Each structure stands twice: as C-alpha cells, then as structure tokens.
Description:
The chain is of the alpha+beta class. It starts with a helix and ends with a strand.
Amino acid sequence: MLCRRSIVLILLIWISGPPAEAQFSRLDQARTEDIDDIVQSNMQSAGIVGCSVGLMRGGEIALLKGYGFRDRTNGTPATEHTIYRTGSVAKTFTAILAMQLVEQEKLELMEDVRVWVPEYPEKPEGMITPYRLLCHRSGIRHYEEYDTAAAVYYERDHYTYDPITALDVFKNGTLLFEPGTDFSYTTFGYNLLGAVIERAGKQTFEQQLHERINTVLDLPYVQAEYQRLRPYPEETKGYHRAGSLIVDTPEDIGILFKVPGGGLLCTAVDLTLLMQGLAEYRLFDETEVQEWMSIDHSGGNNFGLGIITGTHRGRPYLWHAGGQQRTSTIWLYDPATLDGVVITSNTFGTATRTFALALLDAIAETELDGPTYTHIPHTLEAPQLLSPENDAEVQHGSIELRWATVPHAFTYICEHATDSLFSNSIRDTTYTTSVMLDNPQPGVRMYWRVHARNEFLYSGSTGPYSETSRFRTRTLSSISDETPKLPLSIYPNPAAGAVNIAAPDGRRITSVELHALSGRLLLRRVVHQRTHTTLSLTGLCDRLLLLSIHTDDGATTRRTIMQR
C-alpha cells in the first residue's frame, strides 16, 4: 500500500509535471528532495504551471532548477534558462543604475527631475526629485490617468526603447499628493527615473544596463522585451487564474513602454547572479551606497530604493517581487547569512513571498558540496557534423545536412558551396539542427560547415565554424535506371516533341525536371499539384534525357526518356 507521502507526490507530479533534473546543484539528495517537495507543494496550491528556482547559500549559488512546464500544451519543461518577464523586479535594476550615477556624482538625488527631463511637465502639486521617484513618494499614479492608446501603440510606433517618448503614456496625469508628503507605489515613477538615468548617464538606458550591471555580473539574458524579436530562446508561455482554472494568457500589447519599471526579461540564473552581486557588494565602489538603498525610505512602508525590507523569524531580509501578464517573480535574501531565493514563474497572480520564505528556511545551515557555479561561456561551441559523412557519395535529390545540438545555441548558419574556399556559398539560417539541399547539381563535390549563434545571450554570442566536411553527389547516369517509387505513367516514350506524365491513386505532381545525362539541368517546372501534366521537349537537342518527377507524398521517380 502506498504511503500518504507517495500519494501526495504522485498528485503533485500529475498537476505540475515532473520536476526537472537539477541543472546545477551543490545540495545532497535529501536536501534536494526537501526543496522539490516545497516547490511542488507551492506550485500545486498556487496553480503555478512552470517556474525556475535559484538558491544561494552563504553567498554561493547552491541550486538552479526548473519545475513544471514553460509550455503546458506541448509538454516543454521549464529549466534554469527559461526566459520570463521580470515584472517589477526591473525596478531593482533601475535603482542600481540611478545610485551608481549618484556615486559617480553624475546625478543629484534632490534635484528637480526637469533639470534632466524638461519634457516632463511641471506639476502644480510640487517638485519631483529622483529620490522621491526611487522611494515611491513622487505622487505619480500607478496605471491611472494614463494614455492607453500611447501604451498600446508604443511598440508599433517605436523600433527601439526611448524613455523620453515613453513619457507620453503618463506625463499628463495629475499627482496623487504633494511630492514627498506620502507614499504610493508606482511603475510610471520608475519610467520617469529611467529617462533621468538616460540623460544623466549620457548613454541609452539599455546601454547602461548592459555595461554597468550585466557585464559586471556576467548576466546572460537580462534585456528589454521587444515583440518584434520574439520568440526568445526558451521563452515561456503565460498563464493566469480564471476562477478555479489556470488558463493560457492571450498575447498582450507588449511592455516596451515601461522598461525601467517593469519591461525586462530574465532567467532564474540572471536574478540569482544579481542577488549574489548585491550580497557581495559588487555593483558599487562604496558599500554604504547599497546599505543606504536597503533601509526604509517610504515613511514606514518598508520600501527602500528599488529594494524592499522585511522581517522573517526575527531576522531582516531584502527582497523585491514582480507580477504582470505571463509572470510572477521574486528575489529575496538574508544580508546576515547571505542565504537567498529566486523564483521566476509563468503564472500571473500567484503569491511568491511565502513560497520564497519557505525555501529560505530550507536552505539554512545547508552544507554545500561540489564545484562552484560556472558561467555560460561567451563563445559557443563549434557544431559536430553528423551526416553525410566526410567524403561520402550521396544520392542525387533532396539531401539532409545534420549536426549535433550546441548548448545555448538559438540559431545555426549552415554554409555550403562547390569549392572549399566557399567563394560562392549559400548560407541557410535555421532554428533546427539540419537543412535540406533541394536537388543540388549531380556529379559534383559539395563542401559544408556550420556555426552556432544566440543573438540574445550576452547581447549576442556566436561560435566558430565546424570543421569543413565534403561529399559528392552521384551522377545522373548512375541512377537513371532507379526503380520508381510510384507506378507513374510516362508516354509516349520515345517522345515526339512532348511527353505526358500521369500520377495514379490520387497523388499529385508538384514539379518535374529534365537533365542531360551529363548532369546539366535543362528544364524545371513547378506543376502546382496536378494529377497529370504535359512537358514540352521543343528546343531540346539531346536524344536521351533524364526525367525527375516529384509528387506530393515526397517521392521522386526518375526515368530515362528518348526523343525521336
């Protein structure tokens, strides 16, 4: 008889999918099973379809693991590299960029924001400063009195993110109160802060994010979300609760109009490395800057500057969470023990803080074993070519070139040519690990090679070409007596000026080709799926011809025909 714990685990696996194998773990088996139980239990109770978890113990990365599905319909599991929206966790990145400029004396926290961004209108309620934006005391509204059309059409009208034009979404709204006199959480306040950062830092917001955070911490995937660039590598689908059901979230308008406040993408690896970077004070020259960010500046509401404070079991912790369509995320760590938790999920409207605190308890006083985390390489591996084998002779017709998967590759460039210098090569870009060559010239030697790319990893990563491989296509004369796959009717033969072709059993002809026995292509015709066709031989002087017929079932039949 099954014990109660086994029955519960079976139910959780049925609901949330099997837990993925740990992609990186320094935990022993017993502690890993405890973590799995906590994750699966919280996923089931919250209705989370898929999530990725990062754990930090004593400032060292302890575990990176995916659970459930990033695509429930197709059964695609979540991994530590699944890409999610950050939601409001983007505000932590924005606050760091602002305080770095303060440390560099390029930004004055108590100055009027209109010194840098005069496009933001003066408000009768009072002066807004970067400091008041950072701690949500500016009075700017949160998704109220904003221009919905400007938000809906922002990405349609802007090829790249521009924080100045993004102000049009909310800049004409009234303030809730005189700046500095009260607290009200606001995403649009951080959007204005992003415009200030761009002007004060004299680089685009995205450039500053890349250079001063991503590069310093070696974050692989943090970037703004662009609808025109989707799908991203391992991008998750989105889900949300509708009554008692968890349903697919339809595609939304995009989030490019609010990059600093909630428009970034990330993986669990990214946020875990960010959390580790904060724990190690790697983003500021002076530790006092980060410590000042981590105290309450909101008048008793526990909001610091891009960081929220909390207490658990009598101990303080730092955190920030995010929630929007297609995501619920959180990072959380104890600054005394340097134990921390990251959860990135694809299900909107699910509480993550209790979930994260349970994992924080579970990781406490854990002994780590094994090598430390190794960052994703910036240069991808060279692909291993699989087929055709080098120096093989292959059948004329459609030829498949195959190679092995390269870790972290998103696209592959397959280059093929008839000379080893690739002077007149053709390059095919594919998301898969194969390409089809459609009827290359017979009787020639072909050369090919492949390299991997990921346009989104570290803002663009590539790898070296594979070794060059070569093969020879068989001459047509050697295959002219090939047995047909279909009992096609070809008449008259010998032909007098034309030949008729008929396909039986409801099959349809898609194209026909005529070659000289030397291999030279004489004629190619697309037939548009007809059951019969007539091919004119007018103007062809060759007495013997090789006829190739392609049908809609993928078959190719070849026959030698003679002209009278």
